[in-house]
Amino acid sequence: MIPLLATVLIVAALLGALWSLVLLLLSRPVGKIYLLGFLTLVEIALAVQAVLGIVHLAQGHRHVQGVTFVCYLIAALLILPAAAWWSLTERSRWGMGVLLVACLVIPVMIVRMNQIWAGSSV
Amino acid sequence: MSEPDTPAAGLREATRSGPGRVLIAVYAVFALAATARSVVQIIMQFDRAPLAYLLSAFAGVVYIVATVCLARGSATSRRVAMVSCSVELVGVLAVGTASLLAPSAFPDATVWSLYGDGYGFVPVILPILGLLWIRRSGRVAQPAPTA
């Protein structure tokens, strides 16, 4: 885990959550395309984190629960694309609610990854 | 969506759009979390806490069934979703109480331990919201006859 990248990802995902919440409350998804663009950047950063995480793990610097860690890295990549797909077919404001949930899941997963990387118990 | 063509399409839309869409998303997250967690645990360290891991696997299956059935939104799948939400509610209450009374039986936590406190108590709220939503969307899809 790269602490800086993890922190940036947590902050970015929380910003995405706030953004989704505002659009949900406005009940008019104005500028939804910009939010989706932003989330694409977050997704790219998550992919970078997954690659770096697996490389670091393979270098064997740490004695951590490798399988669980890799599962988290890869599962985190599924969240945003799945949420984007599920929200795009919803025309009401609740499509934003789907993105809000997804953006809140990402920080939780990264915190768990940090805990596993730090070697604390499951 | 625009005016549904048939009652079945109306029921489907009522189930899977609006707040239901967010509910299904949360169910999908829990389906992924519980299933992935239990698969890893069962493969890696089944002997450590077999009961807990099997319960997590069971919970994962229940979440998957609820997610898929709510997303399908047909009359039959709504009935299946209602059963799985009920099983989920009974499960989280039973496992939550058991893990309080006999912590030694649960050396490793499950999704439902202590009423889901490891998951922000969402596991105990989710089945209630699911059941309420199935009831409400059923009513919306069948508006009172206008005479």
What gross morphology of chain B would you assign? elongated
Number of helices of chain A: 4
Low-confidence stretches of chain B: none
Radius of gyration of chain B: 17 Å
Task: Count every beta strand of chain B, where a strand is a DSSP E run of 2 or more residues.
Answer: 0
| Sheet/helix structural class of chain A | mainly alpha
Spans of chain A of 5+ residues with little confidence (pLDDT < 50)?
none
Level of helix content of chain A?
A: over 70%
List keywords for this structure.
heterodimer, A: 122 residues, mainly alpha, 4 helices, B: 147 residues, 5 helices, elongated
General description of the model:
The complex is a heterodimer of chains A (122) and B (147). Chain A has 122 residues and is an all-alpha fold. Chain A has helices spanning 3-26, 32-58, 66-88, 94-118. In chain A, helix 2 runs antiparallel to helix 3. With 147 residues, chain B is mainly α. In chain B, 73% of the residues lie in helices and 0% in strands. Chain B is elongated. The mean pLDDT of chain B is 88.
Spell out the blueprint of helices and strands:
The complex is a heterodimer of chains A (122) and B (147).
Chain A: H1 3-26, H2 32-58, H3 66-88, H4 94-118
Chain B: H1 7-16, H2 19-45, H3 50-72, H4 75-101, H5 122-141
Helix pairs in contact in B: 1-5, 2-3, 2-5, 3-4, 4-5
